[in-house]
């Protein structure tokens, strides 16, 4: 059973930085995308950033210019560097990997990010 293990969440003041990391417990075949999503209290889960196996990157408008996603498909790791954090960035952050080979997403358990004003 593949597990995605996130780390790096925590409490930070507004304007601060955090780096989230995610690693798979075993290899995932035919990765198409590696992603970070977040879910704020009372809100739906939303995409924060996505990188494809071809290197294309997409960011949510709300985080553009403040976050950077990086990945190593061969090692099945993905990171999210977040700078200039705002209270509205508070939420549980999940990494996700979509595998063409398995035809499904794999999800991590989530890591809490709290930004105080």
Write a concise synopsis of the structure shown.
With 117 residues, the protein is mainly beta.
List keywords for this structure.
117 residues, mainly beta, 7-stranded mixed sheet, 4-stranded antiparallel sheet
What does this structure look like?
The chain has no helices and eleven strands. With 117 residues, it is an all-beta fold. Strands 2, 4, 5, 6, 9, 10 and 11 form a seven-stranded mixed β-sheet that branches. Strands 1-3-8-7 form a four-stranded antiparallel β-sheet, with no helix packed on it. The protein is globular and about 45 Å long.
Please tell me the overall pLDDT: 96
Order of helices and strands: EEEEEEEEEEE
Q: What oligomeric state do these chains adopt?
A: single chain
Number of helices: 0
Question: Residue share in helices?
Answer: under 10%
N- to C-terminal separation? 40 Å
- State the total count of DSSP E strands: 11
Rg over CA atoms: 14 Å
The helix/strand class is: mainly beta
Query: How is the biggest beta sheet arranged?
Result: 7 strands, mixed
